[in-house]
Design brief:
The protein has helices at 2-15, 20-47, 74-80, 158-161, and strands spanning 55-61, 64-70, 85-91, 100-104, 124-128, 133-137, 147-153, 167-173. The chain is α+β, with helices and mostly antiparallel strands.
Length: 175
């Protein structure tokens, strides 16, 4: 769209160098295109908006701040009750076969009312009930009987993949 606006502005400039009115019209067309583009960007931002029943969160990894949401499951609501929290994450003990950075939750989240089993995907936040791991996923995982997806995060999942060694993550309620 910006490319088309640039062409239009050049055409108006060449077609009538002396016509101030045409130049103004060209600038208005370009400004209008940017306004429409801004509306489209705002609509894209709404695509990842928090749905009813979800809880908006802010996730801070070093100097990177991302938004996310916890879903409406009982287990996710119990995690929300612990916020704000700063946890130390690290590599999954299973190595590269598990595209997640994890921490151990103490005490583990209660399971009552929660269906166990899932296949977390890139951008998911999940809890593995059997060992108490809580993780941010930067890749797809196959179905595991004890995994529960608690929510998701926006932004580049590779923020987690790039972390080496222990690192802190702050999770808090978003404004």
């Amino acid at each position: 769209m910006i490319k088309n606006c640039t062409r239009a502005a050049r055409f108006l400039h060449v077609a009538s160098k002396s016509s101030i009115m045409l130049r103004i019209a060209g600038m208005l067309a370009v400004a209008s295109a940017f306004a429409v583009s801004g509306v489209a960007m705002a609509q894209n931002a709404e695509a990842s908006a928090v749905s009813e029943g979800e809880t908006p969160i802010r996730i801070t990894v070093g100097d990177v701040v991302m938004t996310g949401r916890f879903n409406s499951t009982t287990m996710a609501r119990r995690m929300v009750e612990r916020l704000p929290v700063t946890l130390t994450f690290g590599n999954h003990s299973g190595g590269d076969d598990y595209p997640t950075k994890v921490t151990h939750l103490e005490p583990s989240l209660p399971t009552e009312g929660t269906k166990l089993g899932g296949a977390p995907d890139s951008g998911d936040i999940a809890h593995y009930v059997p060992n108490g791991n809580f993780g941010f996923y930067y890749g797809k995982l196959q179905y595991w009987p004890g995994v529960v997806t608690l929510g998701s995060f926006d932004g580049d999942p590779n923020v987690f993949a790039r972390q080496t060694g222990p690192f802190e993550v702050k999770i808090e309620l978003a404004d």
